[in-house]
Amino acid sequence: MAKFNKIQVLNAMASTGMVPVFYHKDVEVAKNVVKACYDGGVRAFEFTNRGDFAQDVFAELVKWAAKECPEMIMGIGSIVDPGTAALYIQLGANFVVGPLFNPEIAKICNRRLIPYTPGCGSVSEIGFAQELGCDLCKVFPAGNVGGPSFVKNVKAPMPWSMLMVTGGVEPTKENLTAWIKAGVTCVGMGSNLFPKEVVDAQDWGWIVAKCQEAFGYIAEARK
C-alpha cells in the first residue's frame, strides 16, 4: 500500500527536480544508495525492475526506507505490463514508471490513485497518456528523441504538459541547465549518478555530494 498520495508524489518530484533511477540485486547496496540520495536531498527514488527477484529487494527496501528515510517516496521503474504494476503497488510502490506507454497500466494505477509515468517518444504518445490520466509523462530516451529542444517544442502548443526526461541526462551544470530551461518538471538520472566504480567502492559520500551538486545546478537554472 502506498505511503504517500498522488499529490504528495508529484509535488516532491516537481519541487526537487530530480528522481534517481537505480537497480542492484544486493539489498544492502540498494539501502546505502537510497540513504546517500536521501542525505543528498532526494525525496523521490525510482528502483527499477531489472533483475531476477527484484520484487523481493524492493519489498525489503520499502520497509527499510519507511523507518530510516521517512520522507523518501519509493517508486518502481521499468514496468511494461499491468500485472507487474499491480505486484509492486501491493509491495508499496508510490509511483510507477515505464519505458513505454501501456494503457492497461494506467487503469491499474488510476484505480489506486498511484501516479503512472509512461515513457513517450512522440507528441501523440504524450497526448494519449494525458487523456488516460498520466499527469507526468516521461520523455524516453530523451537524448535520442530530440533533447531539450523536443521538450521546448512540445510545451509550446501544450504548456500544461508535465514532463520528466530520462536518458541523456547528466549531473553537469550545462546538461541540467539545458533541460530545466527547456521546461521539464524533473529529470530522471541513473548511471551518471551512480558510476559502477563508485558503487563497487562503496563510496556513498560521493553520491551524497553528487546529488547536492545536481540540486544546486537545478535550483540555479530555475531562477
UniProtKB/TrEMBL annotation:
Q: Which organism is it from?
A: bioreactor metagenome
Record note on quaternary structure = Homotrimer.
- SUPFAM superfamilies, sorted: Aldolase (SSF51569)
As recorded in UniProt, coiled-coil segments are none
Q: Does the keyword Lyase apply?
A: yes
Question: What GO molecular functions are on record for this protein?
Answer: lyase activity
Keywords per UniProt: Carbohydrate metabolism, Lyase
Q: Name one Pfam family in it.
A: Aldolase
Xref: NCBIfam families: PRK07114.1
What is the protein's given name?
KHG/KDPG aldolase
Which protein family is it in? Belongs to the KHG/KDPG aldolase family.
What pathway does the UniProt record associate with this protein? Answer: Carbohydrate acid metabolism
